[in-house]
From TrEMBL:
Residues in coiled coil: none
Similarity-based family: Belongs to the nitroreductase family.
Name of this protein: Putative NAD(P)H nitroreductase
Biological classification of the source: Bacteria, Pseudomonadati, Pseudomonadota, Alphaproteobacteria, Hyphomicrobiales
Catalytic activity, EC: 1.-.-.-
GO molecular function: oxidoreductase activity
Region feature Disordered, mapped onto this chain: 181-203
Basic and acidic residues bias locations: 183-192
Cofactor: FMN
UniProt entry tagged with the keyword Translocase: no
Amino acids binding FMN: R20, R21, S22, R47, H51, W148, V149, T150
Gene source species: Ancylobacter novellus (strain ATCC 8093 / DSM 506 / JCM 20403 / CCM 1077 / IAM 12100 / NBRC 12443 / NCIMB 10456) (Starkeya novella)
Bound cofactor: record note: Binds 1 FMN per subunit.
Top-level taxon of origin: Bacteria
Length: 203
């Protein structure tokens, strides 16, 4: 193939990109990815644009019995962190925290920007965001569904400590992966043409 020959379109890839939808974590069930599929997913995730190849991200996997264990710790942390809250309300939210990992697999994408380099932190954080999206696309390509979330567990200091997020690190996303109980309905999408201008020389 010459350098000027346009490659044939990847019809399956286009169809996947044009139809991708998230499925809420509670709507994801077994089967989840096998150990081989998880390795493949992580390799796809790591294949993102990364300015200066700093690898400014890492992964924490939450699967099997770890899901319940971490849920219990997060629920306790929520209770301890909200002593003023009316008990009924606090228990309601603690219950939600205890069930934060219902899908077969959750991958915490940890952003760990290198502050010693010339590459701006925001660029490194965007690379971590790309990791999250690659995980979703990879999951879809393997026949699974997923969703990228953040929320309390991704931002609260004690919750981050429980997740295993260290000093100088942040949660870019928690990507839940499994099999969709039901196919997701379409959601409204932006009118793309309304977001586009075509550059004209400034007057
Ligand atoms: C950084 C980031 C954080 C998000 N956090 C949440 C979240 O905590 N809870 C949630 O329901 N959706 C969250 N979303 C939105 C979902 O990932 C998803 O985009 C949304 O449900 C729309 O579905 P779609 O991906 O099919 O368009 C987040 C998205 C991004 C990019």
């Amino acid at each position: 193939m010459s350098a000027h020959t346009r490659r044939l379109p990847h019809a399956d890839l286009l169809a996947a990109l044009e139809t991708r939808r998230s499925v809420p974590a509670a709507g994801l069930c077994e089967p989840g990815p096998s150990a081989d599929e998880v390795r493949r997913l992580l390799a796809i995730a790591a294949r993102v644009p990364d300015h200066a190849m700093l690898v400014p991200w890492r992964f924490i996997l939450i699967e099997r019995e770890a899901r319940g264990e971490i849920g219990a710790l997060l629920a306790d942390a929520y209770r301890a962190g909200n002593p003023q809250m009316p008990p009924e309300k606090r228990e309601k939210f603690a219950g939600i925290m205890s069930r934060l990992f219902p899908a077969p697999l959750a991958i915490v994408v940890v952003s760990r920007p290198n502050r010693e380099t010339m590459i701006p932190v925001v660029e490194q954080e965007m690379s971590a965001g790309a990791v999250c999206l690659n995980l979703l696309h990879g999951a879809q390509a393997l026949g699974f569904s997923g969703i990228w979330v953040t929320g309390w567990a991704a931002t609260n200091d004690e919750a981050q400590r429980i997740l295993g997020v260290g000093e100088g690190e942040r949660v870019a996303g928690i990507v839940h992966i499994g099999t969709a109980k039901e196919p997701p309905a379409e959601r409204p999408r932006p009118e793309v043409e309304a977001l586009v201008t075509r550059w004209a020389k400034p007057g």
